[in-house]
Design a protein that fits this description.
- The chain has nine helices and no strands.
- The chain has helices at 2-13, 18-44, 50-76, 78-89, 91-121, 126-150, 154-169, 186-196, 203-231.
- By secondary structure, it is mainly alpha-helical.
- α2 packs across α5 and α6 packs parallel to α9.
- It has one domain (2-231).
Amino acid sequence: MTGRVLLFTREQLRGRLTLALLVFVPIGFVLASAGVLAEFATALGGDLAGDAAAALGAGWAAAFVAGMSGFFAASSARQADRRLAASGAGAASVALSRIASTVAMAAIATVAAFAALWVRVAPVHPWHVLAAITAFAFVYAGIGVLVGAVLPRPLEGSLVVVFIFLLDAFSGPGMDADPAVWSVSRGAGQVLVDAGMGMTSSSGSWTEALVAVAVALAAAFAAFTWAARRRG
C-alpha cells in the first residue's frame, strides 16, 4: 500500500501549480490576513485579535487548501480508483491509499502555514500550534475526500467544501462569542486561539480536536469505500 500512496501523491504533485498552491496560499494568507480576521471577528461579536488572529488564520489556511486538495484528489481520480478497486486492489485498500495521500498533501500545507506563522509571530506554544494546525488540515482533508466521493462534479463539490469551510470559520472560536457546537474545527480553533494568547488549552479542546480528526477521516474512508464499490 505504501507504493500506492507514493504513486497517488506523485500524481497530485505532478501539476506545475499544485505544490506552489499548497505552499504559497497558506503563506500568503497567514502573512496578510490577521488584521482582516480581527475586524471580521469584531463585527461578528467575537474577540479575536493580534497573535490569536494570526494563529487561527494559519489553521484556516491549511484547512482550506487541504479540503480543496482532498476534494479534487477524490473527484478527479474517481474513474481510475474505481478500475483499480475492481481489478483486485479492493475498495477499502484504495480508499486508505487515497486518504493517506491526501493527508500527506495536507501535511505540506500545514508546514507552510506554520512556517509563515513562526516568521510572523513566533508563538509561545509552538508545538500546540503545530498540532492544532495539523488537526485543522486533517479534518478538512477528510471533508474534501468525503465530498469528492459522494459529489464528484467539480463545481458543485467545490462549492460544498467552500460552504462548509465558511460556515465553520465564521461560527467557530474567536469569530463567535459562543462557538457553534457543530463547528467541526471548534476544538482545534480553540487551541490556536489559546496558544496565540500565550495560554495553554484545556484537555476538552484537545479531545474535541482529536475526535473531529478521527470522525472526518473515518467518514471519508466510509464514503470513499462505498462509492468505489457502488461504481464498481
